[in-house]
Design goal:
Blueprint: E1 2-11, E2 14-19, E3 28-31, E4 38-49, H1 58-70, E5 75-86, H2 87-91, E6 107-109, H3 113-120, E7 127-133, E8 140-144, H4 145-151, E9 153-156, H5 163-176, E10 180-185, E11 198-202, H6 212-218, H7 226-235, H8 238-242, H9 246-259, H10 263-266, H11 269-285, E12 306-310, H12 316-341, E13 357-361, H13 364-367, H14 375-390, E14 392-398, H15 406-409, E15 414-417, H16 423-432, H17 438-442, E16 451-456, E17 463-467, H18 481-509
Parallel strand pairs: 9-14, 9-15, 10-12, 10-13, 11-12, 13-14
Antiparallel strand pairs: 1-2, 1-6, 2-5, 3-4, 3-6, 4-5, 7-8, 7-17, 15-16, 16-17
Helix pairs in contact: 6-12, 7-9, 7-11, 9-11, 12-14
Length: 510
């Protein structure tokens, strides 16, 4: 059945068509050509009416309504279509753009269900369903998990648009395959995720494993307090790291600075007193976070499971240090495993994980900011560049793409982009994703909760999908204040009635 015809100037990558009905953005169409059938995606759609052209007042609009109803030729449906490639090649996962653009007057039709299933729902190993095509609900939208581990993934959206649901869904699918996932959970959104093979870890920091600058951040010594930082560097020796009574030894080293007769050390005595106070306060404030006797934090991560690392109790600086440590150690472990696998190491086995790992960083704009350097950003950038060679994949999740470092963001090989309104965010996305057209970027403001534009290597073609809801995810959804207030008021009434009943019972007993 004919949908319309190509009109005007056509290009190998883009055509305009007049159609028999309004086509939806995200709808797929088929264009015939001498070289073969071509698949296209509707990126922009418009409707115009000749009767309403140059209408200037209400009466004219009312009259034009009657004219438009009588004239079947009044409405003009225009579709702007991005060409995705030859259908036959797309079935094999190859996107080949025609050298000759479609000729104006070429007929446009709908692709068959089989055409779309072969492209968007391939029956291949590593491909898993995450929802359905937004405009073709009967077609499963599948993604290639291999590509997100080897080429990384960015999930970008406003708050409440379904980022954490998609993270949960990807985690659930990898967990089914007994893969290893690590989510750095900054807001305690995933600790209640009720899926098989889950391992929840409350993040702690072993101060022995840090350097002086990292320990300074963990103890929350101010950036401007350079003398205090110097005192800590002097005290925090290798001997302190190795001693059994860590905190006591560290305090003794600072005592030595305070009580020294050295004139140079006398100049920093007041700062040493302050560092001593900070260490004492930190042992009390961060008792559940800082543990010099915990051993290696990496050992708590379980291979073949979904590991939720709860860092919600850490301050921003502490979380940054913890994240940097984990990223550094995970990259080292995967490098060691890769070297051992290729028989290039003469050392004994010194790695923990035997298979690839996918690491997800929530609130990426906090840890990978574009306007300043952090230790977590350094290691995330290193994994983005090198991780694919060693089986370490990176997923970054953010509601503020404009604040994420572009060098890291642009190295994400795949993206799920949900509703984004801010123009700065849209520009950052356009800079990071070469395969996302300006027309598709413009559609981000109109997406509903759970809708996403998928681009990159984890899908055969750019697609608009609706992501399945993960029923096992409990936390992270918006709370209803109205329901909570009503429930609290009801509980208060029950408490009052119960108290009155007890009082009356006491009076009767008296």
């Amino acid at each position: 059945m004919s949908l319309g015809f190509v009109i005007g100037e056509s290009k190998p990558t883009f055509v305009t068509a007049l159609t028999s009905r309004a086509l939806s953005v995200g709808e797929y169409i088929k264009i015939s050509s001498d070289e073969g059938e071509i698949l296209g995606l509707v990126e922009k759609s418009s409707v115009s009416s000749a009767a309403f052209t140059d209408v200037k007042n209400f009466d004219e609009a009312s009259e034009s309504t009657e004219i438009a109803e009588l004239n079947k030729r009044d409405k003009t449906f225009t579709a702007h279509i991005g060409i995705l490639g030859f259908l036959e090649n797309l079935r094999r996962g190859q996107s080949i753009i025609p050298a000759i653009p479609p000729i104006p007057g070429t007929e446009i039709t709908l692709p068959s269900k089989q055409d779309l299933e072969e492209i968007f729902s391939p029956e291949k190993e590593g491909w898993v369903s995450i929802g359905s095509l937004l405009r073709n609900k009967s077609i499963d939208a599948k993604v290639n998990l291999d590509k997100i581990v080897s080429r990384h993934l960015g999930i970008l959206a406003m708050t409440g648009m379904g980022k954490s649901n998609l993270v949960s869904l990807v985690t659930k699918q990898i967990s089914k395959l007994k893969g290893t996932v690590i989510i750095f959970d900054y807001h305690n959104d995933y600790t209640s995720l009720n899926i098989p093979r889950i391992n929840v870890i409350d993040a702690k920091i072993n101060p022995r494993l840090l350097d002086a600058d990292q320990l300074s951040d963990v103890l929350e010594i101010r950036d401007s307090a350079t003398v205090q930082q110097r005192v800590l560097r002097m005290a925090f020796s290798e001997q302190v790291k190795k001693t059994k009574e860590f905190w006591k030894k560290l305090e003794n080293e600072i005592d030595f600075i305070i009580n020294s007769d050295d004139n140079k050390l006398k100049e920093i005595r007041s700062s040493a007193y302050r560092v001593q106070d900070i260490i004492e306060e930190s042992q009390k404030r961060f008792e559940d976070i800082l543990d010099p006797d915990m051993g290696d934090p990496i050992s708590f991560i379980k291979e073949g499971r979904a590991n939720i690392l709860n860092i919600s109790e850490l301050s921003e600086k502490q979380a940054n240090v913890a994240l940097a440590f984990y990223l550094q150690q995970l990259l080292k472990d995967r490098k060691d495993a890769s070297i051992a696998r290729h028989g290039k190491s003469k050392k004994e086995r010194n790695y923990q994980f035997n298979s690839p790992i996918f690491v997800i960083i929530e609130e990426a704009h906090v840890f990978i900011p574009k306007d300043h350097d952090t230790s977590a950003k350094y290691w995330a950038a290193k994994i983005a560049r090198e991780g694919r060679k060693f089986g370490l994949g990176l997923g970054i999740v953010s509601q503020r793409p404009r604040s994420v470092d572009l060098n890291v963001l642009s190295q994400m090989g795949s993206f799920a982009i949900m509703k984004i309104i801010q123009e700065d965010d849209q520009r950052q996305i356009a800079s990071a994703t070469e395969s996302t057209s300006r027309e598709l970027i413009a559609q981000l403001t109109s997406l509903n909760v759970g809708d996403a534009v998928l681009v990159g290597q984890w899908t055969n073609l750019p697609s608009l999908v609706h992501v399945d809801e993960v029923k096992e995810k409990i936390m992270g959804a918006d709370q209803s204040a109205i329901n909570a207030w009503a429930k609290a008021d009801k509980m208060k009434e029950i408490a009052v009635e119960s108290t009155q009943g007890l009082v009356q019972k006491d009076l009767l007993l008296d």
